[in-house]
Every structure is written in structure tokens, then in C-alpha cells.
Amino acid sequence: MARANAYAKRFEGAVVWPGKRWEYPLHMEQTNQEAANHTQLDERSWWFYEAVGVSTAMMGRTLGAGQLYLEASQDEDGKRLDGGKFYTLRVPKEPPVAQFWSFTVYDNETRCLIDTGTYPDRSSRDDVVTNADGSVDLFFGPTPPVGKPQQNWIKTLPDRGWFTYFRLYAPTQPYFDKTWRLPDIIKVK
């Protein structure tokens, strides 16, 4: 049940931006899971299926402090992310962070970092190639993308599903007022 809740969130307010595939992986009113009129048992179990700990700083509710997690397990067409296929994501310019952003890939079954022999994360702290307009193109697939910057690539594994957390460290106002939006992950056709 926890796995079903984690990868098919059906709770009101779980979607970050209407019409997009990004969801909140941590969607509780407070760390003790008590809402105004009920205990958020399903919401807590979905988070604890994917992760373990929780703190107020991880809930992303303080302007310019803490961290915020956004999760995706589907591409723009609603298909599950497949380690044998190729995908791309354009991180728009000026991500709303006072510190940095980070994109990390996890294995659907183990819920651990995907085990490819390399660290499956890219962030604004890395030497990623930035486009002329300030955006960053990230690439995902079992082999490096041809003609694309290798330092923007995260290796995936064939026959393994994956999901990601896009973290915003010290989120700023454009995130909270939703004027900055992260596009969906796109399957390369």
C-alpha cells in the first residue's frame, strides 16, 4: 500500500503544478502527521516507503531556508520512467534557490540511489553546461547522449524503473508564488 501511495499519489494537493507530473513527496501538514481532522497515515507511509527521516526544514515552507523536495516518477506523457530509455529535462533559468538545486535519481524497487557505479546526481554546484539563456539541459539514459555534454548526463539502468527528487535548497519567492515552474521530464523519441 505504501508503494502504491508513493508512486500513484491520489491525495489532494500532491501535485505541485496543475497539468505537470511533479509531486510533493513529503506532503504532511506537520512532522507528527496530525492534520486538523485526521491522522495523515497514508501520506506518512508513502514518504517512509521512499525515505525515512523527516524534519521541519525538509518540508520546504520557509522562504530562503531549509529544503524543498519535488518528485517525478513519470514522463510528460504519464509513462513510468524506464532506465532503458532516454530522457531530457530543461531546468529553467534562475531556479528559485538561495543556495543550490540538485537532481538525484533513485531505483523504484530499492528506493536507494540507482546503482550505476557513478553518483546519480547533478546540481548547480557541479560543472554542468549552462545554455545561453541560463537554463540547464539534463540527460538520462543507459549510455551517454551523443553530441550532448557528458557532465549533464545521469546514467540509468536498463530493466530498472527510476524516480527522482529535484531539491531546492533555501527556496525563494518565485517557487512559492509559482512563477517559476519545472517542466516535465521528456522521453527522447
Characterization of this structure:
This protein is of the alpha+beta class and 189 residues long. The protein has one domain (2-187): Jelly Rolls. It is built from three helices and eight strands. The protein has helices at residues 2-7, 41-50, 173-176, and strands at 67-72, 87-91, 97-107, 121-123, 136-141, 153-155, 162-171, 186-187. A four-stranded antiparallel sheet has the order 1-7-3-4. It has a four-stranded mixed sheet with strand order 6-5-2-8, with no helix packed on it. It starts with a helix and ends with a strand. The mean pLDDT is 87.
Give me some keywords for this one:
four-stranded antiparallel β-sheet; 189 residues; Jelly Rolls; 3 helices; four-stranded mixed β-sheet; alpha+beta; 11% helix
Helix content: 10-25%
Mean pLDDT over the residues? 87
Q: Helices and strands, in N-to-C order?
A: HHEEEEEEEHE
Radius of gyration: 16 Å
| Parts with pLDDT < 50 across at least 5 consecutive residues | none
The CATH topology turns out to be: Jelly Rolls
| Proportion of strand residues | 15-25%
Gross CATH architecture: Sandwich
Q: CATH homologous superfamily, by name?
A: Domain of unknown function DUF1214, C-terminal domain
Q: Note the total helix count.
A: 3
In this structure, how is the largest beta sheet organized?
A: 4 strands, antiparallel
**Strand line-up in the sheet with most strands:** 1-7-3-4
N-to-C terminal Cα separation, in Å? 33 Å
Beta-strand segment tally: 8
